[in-house]
Amino acid sequence: MSMLIRAAAIERLLGIDWFANIGKPSSLPGVRQIGQGELGSSLAGDAWEATTLEARNAITGRLARLHPGQYQAWNELAGQAKTALQPLWQKLPVDLADNAVLADLQWILHAYLMEAAYREALVPPLFFDSLIQVYEAGHIPCGWDGEWPSGQLVIC
Fold this sequence. Notes:
By secondary structure, the protein is mainly α. The protein has helices at 7-14, 39-44, 46-66, 68-71, 74-85, 99-117, 127-136; strands at residues 31-33, 141-145, 152-155. The protein has a 3-stranded mixed sheet. Strand 2 and strand 3 form a beta hairpin. The model has no long low-confidence stretch (mean pLDDT 93).
């Protein structure tokens, strides 16, 4: 079975007005918003790295257990996702695309494209899809309060 990165997922990312509402109050439900001055330390925190890693591992674990045939395409899809994201990097505002923000964004967007490719094999709610909603609202997901999957998303 041939799998592809979804064009609709790429188009969704290309349509985002990146970081447009940093520093403005968020209307997103169920999140805790922090100030821009806390962004770097929150992104660098162990809790955020552990949360995004656990969420990605939940995807690969489910695929390996329940959909091994589809999971065989993971590495090929990962390469497609990396290539598909290239046009996006030119759209980012240079002033906010520091190394920590960019590294985190690369990890999350890649995971989102992989999650979207395997959407039918996964159980909603989809974690990385929910992070894209934060970017669409002009903010940055940057931390997690609690033990994932319980807890609360932190945004800037």
